[in-house]
Amino acid sequence: MIKKRSYFKSRTLAYVLILPQLLITAAFFYWPAVQGIVASFQLSDPFGFRTRFVWFDNYIALFSDPLYLQSIGITLLFSGSVAIVSISCGLFLASMANRALRLTSLTRTLLIWPYAIAPAISGILWLFLLHPSYGVVAIGMEKWLGIDWNPLLNSSNAMLMVVLASAWKNISYNFVFFLAGLQAVPHSLIEAAAMDGASPFRRFWAITFPLLSPTMFFVTVMTIIFSFFESFGVIHAVTQGGPGGSTNILVYKVYQDGFIGLNLGSSSAQSVVLMGLIILITVLQFKYVERKVQYTG
Amino acid sequence: MMVERTPKLDFFTYTALILGIIAVGFPILYAFIAATLPIEDVSQVPMVMIPGNQLFHNLGEAWSRGHLGTQLFNSFIMASGITIGKIVVSLFGAFSIVYFDYRFRVVAFATVFCTLMLPVEVRILPTYEMAANIFGPLQSVWNALGLDGIVSWFAGHDIEVTLEFSLLDSYAGLILPLTASATCTFLFRQFFLTIPEELCEAAKMDGASPMTFFWKILLPLSKTNIAALVVIEFVYGWNQYLWPLLITTNQNMTTAVIGLQHLLPSPEDPPDWHIAMAGALIVMLPPVLVVLLMQRWFVKGLVEREK
Q1: Which of B117, B246, B303 sits opposite A259 (nearest CB)?
Q2: Which residues of chain A lie closer than 8 angstroms to B19, CB-CB?
Q3: pTM across the whole model
Q4: Does residue A31 sit in the same domain as residue A142?
Q5: A8: nearest CA in chain B?
Q6: CATH number of domain containing A175
Q7: What is the CATH number of the domain that holds B184?
Q8: Angle B297-B299-B304 (CA atoms, 0-180°, nearest 5)?
């Protein structure tokens, strides 16, 4: 591992300095992670009086449970939609802002504030906008488009509502990254292509877009992580997984089965599955980052 | 600079930007208008779209009905606690990892680094148990070693030792588990590695102690990085949802983002959406202000994360 040529010799001080970090990490990451893995191999009654070691029973039960498989499908649909909406809007707005040279910082100010809003509050704002009896968007849709809109009862309406609330909050995050990525594209390349007669659209797709691919990758990973985990607030505040389990994403199911259903074994097994998923994403990301480093020399 | 005339595309660009800004701002604008209206206007279909004069009345009503005073205070303590805790812990950690040489340096770094992407959401149950009894691990070790038996043997009668200290419904419980994050440590490490070697060499030649070097040189150099992380972590802390939901049962210990839920009108209640939206405006204001006022550092800090 890289280190400084010049360093301090005091061992004791070095240990004292790193100790708080190690203690907190051990207490709130490693210990719980180990406990979670152990609990995922156990079957216990809801009051925790008796536990029994059952090997992979919890996992087998989990993957043969139609509700869990349904929840996987819902999560994929949900995060895929959030990613498509928030990434395409973020990229579009960033490339527009990058063209409007004079107003970049003003547009940035006017576009980044949803980042600061909690997912749960974003959910509440959209619930109001799309409320079947009070929401202006919902009423407009019914009046002008003839759609029978009711996210409180209709599954696909509910899904659309939580996707919009989550994507809206995430547009600004993606916007910031795409704008930074666009500003880093060398002007000389664009100018050379312009001299060769390439139109602005052609230049975007042939030069800018490929150069943005590292940013695109990073933003996609972050959006997926956001929609897998942080969107818990949106779901809990707005639909509570309903109607009829149609917005019951995986992280909400962990909470519901563990804290409300008190099914500790199953909830722990679900947590372990999510942990594995996160580790996989992290490894993929670092593999990719390494390749990027080699590629640019 | 390139000179190219594209009037049609320019027109499209500005129109798209203006529409985009309106679309992104619309949910907030709509909430703001609702918060200024009396109930008759909010419950009209469709809602009156001209701001009314009830803003302060509604804000006051939301404030008292939702116990927002106490809960905003809790949110503030939690967000600042997480921010300060994370930054202090990780500044020291990164300083130790970069500027010292010891046997477990690589192990320590790897231990912390492995937790980089693991959000609290995937380990809620066991972390909750840990917070419910912070001495849980010690208790397990105690039980595993059969120390109860030894103590009983010494005392001559049965003794059961229970180590218990709960963090539920406390500020420590809200803050501590969320200060464990590798992200800040990793960012500070990356930054420290870019600082020229000569600075440390010169400081050592002048006989500066490690901590003098830290306070006098490293800390002032890290100012912009710290500012960026303050914005990001404050927003992160303020907007936490799952953890405060689990760990607080007492309404006086919960945070404003959670408490807002109680202002939402249920189907049986009068449709007090104007109060709910007024509450939402109050609760979202602090992090929005922090982001807008410290925009420059915030954007810098966010973009650094990609590297």
Answers
A1: B246
A2: none
A3: 0.88
A4: no
A5: B100
A6: 1.10.3720.10
A7: 1.10.3720.10
A8: 95
